[in-house]
Amino acid sequence: MTTVLDVELVAGRPAVVTADAAAEPAAWLAEHRAAVDAVVDRHGAALVRGLRITDPLGAEAAIRALSTELMTEREAFAPRERYAPGVYSSTSWPPDQPMCMHHELTYAAQYPARQLFCCLAAPERGGATALADGAAVLRDLPAELVDRFDRHGWRLLRAHNDILSMPWPVAFGTEDRAAVEAYLRDGDVEWRWDADGGLRTSRLRPAVTTHPISGERVWFNQVAFLNEWTMDPAVREYLMLEFGRDGLPFNTLCGDGEPLDRETVDLINEVYTAHTVRTPWRAGDVLVVDNIRMAHSREAFEGPRQIVVGLDRPTRQSKLSDR
């Protein structure tokens, strides 16, 4: 029998579930897992609040209590610390720069259908992991923009080298070129090796998907987040002057090959903003997110911030031609 949880619903915030503070965190989560899953299925995310989780081992136990199958990350766009298989630190990103809305790993061969976040240290100011409903975003984007990306998908270009971005052995977790090529081939990724040992990749992915439970169509990509116009302006200007557009560590295009202008990227981010919900982190919080339905971001922050992340329910990336 599924336990019915008391869920707090406040406009502008994710659904909040209050846990028993006296309980052992992993045991409480395991006991109430089905009920937490039901909240996520209904609302897209559930913030479990009140647990006493104070260290990475406790965070790992909490994540494992709620997970189905944790997955190994490949092709990260920024470094993470690995605590255990499938359990990582949050992405290393400058604290003073926000991380824009995106669905995790939509460019990779596999993405997590769920993400699990556990807060060990909340920042003094900012730093929320905000959420936005991808179905609502899709409904509010201009029809002509949605139709274009629905037909053509989106393309991600990456350059792996020792100067500007993650070297390919770090991103792929191996120094074996043959293994990297096999992974890229399996994921329908085009690649070329540079004379200096760097690696460049290009892949086409769907920009819109259908949620497997609700049947809703969802704006599901990282086309705005990984685009040149979302970079810090000073960083983008420096990179363009020194290395040119082809030298950027990452960039996105419409799947038809056309670059995106600043107005289009700004528009996508504005629609995300209109549908954003957030609540400040508290130590011990566990946030469970439907990664297909909900995009997430990270706001700029001040003070220490420690979030442990689990990538759950690996799902094979679809081909644009298979949709």
UniProtKB/TrEMBL annotation:
Pfam families: TauD. Keywords: Antibiotic biosynthesis, Dioxygenase, Iron, Oxidoreductase. Residues 23-307 form the TauD/TfdA-like domain. Gene3D superfamilies: Clavaminate synthase-like. Its EC number is 1.14.11.-. SUPFAM superfamilies: Clavaminate synthase-like. GO terms for molecular function: dioxygenase activity. It is an enzyme of class 1 (oxidoreductase). Its cofactor is Fe(2+). Signal peptide: none annotated. This is TauD/TfdA family dioxygenase. It comes from Dactylosporangium vinaceum. The lineage of its organism: Bacteria, Bacillati, Actinomycetota, Actinomycetes, Micromonosporales.
